[in-house]
């Protein structure tokens, strides 16, 4: 979920930002502390997951204390947004580690969480560059398969939580894993991401105070051609900009929670209505959808939601408690 930078040329290559970001060079971040906090009612275990493609993914499994073969617990796999992400989906904003927040909250409610570094990122093996959303979906399925091998995990109570691009990948996983007990889509889209990219680029140019009116209008008019050039250069971009999330959603019957912030300027809040409609059109009877006031694409309180201002957010930058609580309560009702 790379940042959308203010420079107009750099922004073109990064304009997908959290929802639909052009693939950046793979990061090799310094080691992070993934251990459980002192006194937590869960343990944090470092694990490796082998994928059908042959590479291994490094992850952390947070497991409630007392989970056992005799008393197995439900579990989720987290799915990061676009760009090479570590298992916490840390973005360089002080305090922002949304999947660690989620794992902690769920662990305290008796639900296990597997969060993994993206392929080729952090401690995971494999190659990130050139992989598509469909490839990442298979990595998530490998995580689910791993959970099914653990005697402490109840294989009947598994789910996934995806943020940004991860919210597009989650229905792809659910289509192939119809036994999942629930999926959560955070700041996703229903339309092919080409529409979201056009929305982001237009928003970027309209906020760029360095552009004259004439240059701004010219840049906006050239957006379709720029998108075509980006698609031609990148297999991931070609897949993601042409994949139709709504078509996949119509084939999914898994219970689903859809959340977006009202100030999200990367995945338009109106997409919540379209996502809900797509699931319901396919006959899904268990769909919950909400737009949360005052929150940006990161589910952080924000005055305007413009990604170029993320670094101005006061630290620590953390997922707003109401949003986190909605997700945790919804999952607890289905996985416990």
Automatic annotation (TrEMBL):
Keyword Signal: yes
This protein's UniProt keywords: Signal
UniProt-recorded Gene Ontology molecular function terms: carboxylic ester hydrolase activity
Protein name, entry field: Serine aminopeptidase S33 domain-containing protein
InterPro entries named in the record: AB_hydrolase_Est10, AB_hydrolase_fold, Hydrolase_4
Domain Serine aminopeptidase S33: 98-303
SUPFAM superfamilies xrefs: alpha/beta-Hydrolases (SSF53474)
Source species of the chain: Roseisolibacter agri
Record's signal peptide: 1-22
Residues passing through the membrane, by range: none
Pfam families (alphabetical): Hydrolase_4
Signal in keyword set: yes
């Amino acid at each position: 979920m790379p940042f959308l930078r203010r420079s107009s040329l750099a922004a073109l290559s990064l304009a997908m930002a959290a929802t639909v970001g052009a693939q950046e060079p793979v990061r090799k971040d310094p080691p992070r502390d993934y251990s459980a906090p002192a006194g937590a009612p869960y343990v944090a275990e470092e694990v490796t997951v082998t994928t059908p493609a042959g590479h291994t993914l490094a992850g952390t499994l947070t497991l409630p204390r007392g989970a056992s073969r005799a008393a197995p617990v439900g579990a989720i796999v987290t799915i990061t947004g676009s760009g090479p992400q570590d298992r916490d989906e840390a973005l360089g904003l002080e305090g922002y580690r949304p999947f660690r927040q989620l794992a902690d909250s769920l662990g305290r409610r008796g639900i296990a969480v597997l969060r993994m570094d993206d392929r080729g990122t952090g401690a995971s093996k494999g190659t990130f560059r050139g992989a598509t959303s469909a490839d990442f979906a298979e990595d998530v399925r490998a995580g689910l398969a791993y959970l099914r091998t653990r005697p402490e995990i109840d294989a009947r109570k598994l789910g996934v939580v995806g943020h940004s691009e991860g919210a597009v990948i989650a229905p792809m996983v659910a289509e192939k894993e119809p036994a999942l007990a629930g999926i959560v889509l955070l700041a996703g889209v229903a339309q092919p991401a080409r529409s979201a990219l056009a929305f982001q680029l237009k928003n970027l140019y309209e906020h760029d105070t360095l552009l004259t009116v004439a240059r701004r209008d010219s840049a906006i008019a050239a957006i379709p051609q720029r998108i075509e050039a980006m698609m031609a250069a990148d297999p991931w971009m070609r897949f993601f900009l042409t994949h139709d999330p709504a078509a996949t959603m119509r084939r999914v019957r898994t219970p689903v929670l859809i959340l977006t912030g009202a100030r999200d300027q990367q995945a338009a809040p109106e997409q919540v209505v379209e996502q809900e409609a797509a699931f319901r059109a396919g006959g899904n009877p268990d769909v919950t959808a909400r737009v949360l006031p005052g929150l940006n694409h990161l589910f952080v309180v924000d005055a305007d939601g413009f990604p170029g201002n993320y670094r101005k957010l006061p630290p620590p930058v953390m997922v707003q408690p109401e949003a986190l609580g909605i997700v945790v309560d919804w999952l607890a009702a289905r996985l416990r």
